[in-house]
Amino acid sequence: MTSFSEKNDLKIAAELADFVETDALPGTGIEPEVFWSALSSLAHDFGPRNKALLSKRDELQTQIDEWHIRHRNQPHDHEAYKAFLEKIGYLVPEGADFEIETKNTDPEIASVPGPQLVVPITNARYALNAANARWGSL
Which positions of the chain have pLDDT values less than 70? Predict the structure, then answer.
């Protein structure tokens, strides 16, 4: 059974709390009390919004599941499915073109073009090797 620690009104798995305080934070200049206080603030500030978003996700998933049950053993109708997803708000109209600004990011990552490697995100080693290759190619 998992044991828990109380950290700034948060119930944290003791193993995670130990990892954060003994492995993750040392050398960062962030004291454990500051970290737990900031995490608590984030959890309390964004918790209600996150809960509402998770509820909306569950609602959408239920509607999608029900659609698939109703259309079981029927040929897939792409247009009808797309219209259904738009009707329930899962798909939204495409907005106007936009650009994303990057701050506090090295130019080599934010704006200097370089070779790109396509790798599966399911293998962390491949993704790390691709990032290292990208950095080394500049």
Answer: 114-116, 134-138
